[in-house]
């Protein structure tokens, strides 16, 4: 909200306006796309969404006190307030929001991170590096929003444009120097970040996900590319840089529209930033050197696995793009806390198996975390996993295949089924396991031989089954939900945290075995 208000005519300056009805010389005190949330003095922007059309709720917005309307379709009746017709109202919403809050992203450095995997971990690494460099960082992402001791929740990885620009304004007012932001493909395709002034755009990778929304990999890639061929190009920031994964086959496709500076990170010396020293990697973490064009930084981290080593090279690349020094980079990576739900270890009593919880919910993410753990496992690798409902069904057998290729044992269970039947989802996962030679066994037989799987719909019981089958030198990976503290079943949001459940079960199993 702006106390004095902003003239609608000023907000229109950044738009490609097709027609204006009424006098736009009115003060706007807020912006909303939800007619139920409109307050007196607000501008209501009618968005055509996947399920609803905001134009159908203009009357409700007016009844709640809307001062003006922006839409992409003329209203059927004359309005008592100004109406601004635009070609694309979601695009208009983002540009109006940035203007309304005073273009706040120009007041700090902004790093946008897009890609299927690695975004959250990278924000944690960069936040830690920035703090080590004496800066005041802000983070916007999947887990939460963090800045200067404040923690806020957000319903979307990338907030809606009015909420995002309002957040930028609060961050700027409180002295944030740099913001690290996860930029989802939804956020890009739905224009949520339009009008944000990025200094650095980062591409981590591109693998199958969100195809229920995008419809196919080509459109998914096009959405990711918008960070570079639209946002970075339009940004008012100086010395703009694209940081991309040299290992990913889609790297050039995603940045094909960007003609500025590019820094490539990866695991091999054909990248600009890459590991170059002796590598120590085990279940306790990673220790190595990472080389960049003008120097070398020694890193030590509690993060586990090759994919996290790649995340560290990305962090070094971004930090160098922001001119952070070697000492701050090394200190920041070493002091970075374990990222919630990203190969997060669950502590158990002495003699318990090693247990990790991870957010991996695609076949590629599962491949990454399994590939990280398998070489470090002296016993068997046991994976508990499922697949979310009301999402891309095509990835379900692929996830089963990914687990069968790298694990010794698996328990297939429910994830967030949402409105789907959990057993139907499970049935669609099983062909991937069976196709790779895994055999289904009863729960009573589970753990007696390798390359088998059991089915347990109840997620708590599935975790219990895996932990009871595990020996001290085994590793149990609980995949899919990571940091989430809930389970979505039908229209219910149930309390459920894989980490808490696993920790409690480890204690119970230990106590039972001591009796």
* Annotation, overall tally of beta strands: 28
Strand arrangement in the largest pleated sheet: 11-10-9-12-8-13-14-15
- The general outline is globular
Uncertain runs are none
Strand content: 15-25%
CATH H-level homologous superfamily name of the largest domain: Mur-like, catalytic domain
Helix content: 25-40%
Rg, alpha carbons: 25 Å
Kindly report how far apart the N and C termini lie: 62 Å
CATH architecture classification of the largest domain = 3-Layer(aba) Sandwich
Please identify the top-level CATH class of the largest domain. Answer: Alpha Beta
Number of helices: 16
The chain-level mean pLDDT equals 94
Helix/strand class: alpha/beta
Report the sheet with the most strands, covering strand number, pairing sense and barrel closure. 8 strands, mixed
- Would you tell me which CATH topology of the largest domain applies? UDP-N-acetylmuramoyl-L-alanine:D-glutamate ligase
């Amino acid at each position: 909200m702006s106390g004095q208000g902003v003239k609608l005519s000023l907000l229109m300056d950044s738009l490609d306006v097709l027609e204006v009805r009424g006098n736009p010389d009115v003060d706007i005190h807020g912006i909303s796309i939800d007619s139920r949330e409109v307050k007196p003095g607000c501008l209501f922007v009618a968005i055509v969404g996947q399920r609803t059309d905001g134009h159908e709720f203009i009357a409700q917005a007016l009844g709640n006190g809307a001062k003006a309307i922006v839409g992409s379709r003329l209203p059927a009746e004359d309005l008592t307030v100004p109406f601004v017709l635009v070609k694309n109202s979601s695009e208009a919403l983002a540009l109006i929001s940035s203007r309304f809050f005073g273009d706040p992203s120009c007041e700090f450095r902004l790093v946008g991170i897009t890609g299927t995997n690695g975004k959250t971990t990278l924000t944690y690494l960069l936040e830690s590096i920035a703090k080590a460099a004496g800066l005041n960082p802000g983070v916007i992402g999947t887990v939460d929003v963090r800045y200067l001791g404040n923690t806020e929740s957000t319903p979307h990885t990338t907030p809606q444009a009015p909420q995002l620009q309002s957040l930028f304004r609060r961050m700027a007012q409180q002295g944030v120097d740099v913001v690290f932001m996860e930029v989802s493909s939804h956020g890009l395709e739905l224009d949520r970040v339009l009008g944000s002034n990025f200094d650095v755009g980062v591409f981590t990778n591109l693998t199958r996900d969100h195809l229920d929304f995008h419809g196919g990999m080509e459109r998914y890639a096009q959405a990711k590319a918008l960070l570079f061929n639209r946002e970075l190009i339009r940004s008012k920031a100086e010395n703009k840089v694209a940081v991309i994964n040299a290992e990913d086959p889609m790297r050039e496709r995603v940045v094909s529209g960007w003609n500025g500076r590019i820094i490539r990170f990866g695991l091999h010396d054909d990248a600009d930033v890459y590991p170059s020293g002796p590598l120590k990697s085990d279940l306790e973490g990673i220790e190595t050197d990472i080389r960049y064009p003008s120097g070398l930084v020694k890193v030590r981290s509690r993060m586990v696995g090759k994919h996290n080593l790649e995340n560290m090279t990305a962090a070094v690349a971004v930090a160098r793009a922001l001119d952070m020094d070697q000492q701050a980079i090394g200190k920041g990576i070493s002091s970075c806390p374990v990222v919630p739900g990203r190969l997060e270890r669950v502590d158990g009593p002495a003699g318990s198996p090693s247990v990790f919880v991870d957010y991996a919910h695609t076949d590629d993410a599962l491949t990454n975390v399994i590939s990280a753990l398998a070489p470090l496992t002296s016993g068997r690798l046991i994976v508990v996993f499922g697949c979310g409902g009301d999402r891309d069904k095509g990835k379900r057998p692929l996830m089963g295949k990914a687990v069968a290729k790298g694990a010794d044992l698996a328990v297939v269970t429910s994830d967030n089924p949402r409105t789907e039947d959990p057993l139907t989802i499970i049935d669609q996962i099983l062909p991937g396991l069976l196709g790779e030679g895994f055999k289904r066994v009863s729960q009573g037989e589970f753990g007696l031989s390798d390359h088998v799987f059991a089915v347990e719909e109840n997620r708590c019981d599935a975790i219990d089954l895996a932990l009871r089958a595990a020996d001290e030198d085994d590793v149990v990976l609980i995949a899919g939900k990571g940091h989430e503290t809930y389970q979505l079943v039908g229209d219910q949001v149930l309390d459920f945290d894989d980490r808490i459940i696993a920790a409690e079960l480890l204690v119970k199993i230990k106590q039972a075995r001591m009796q």
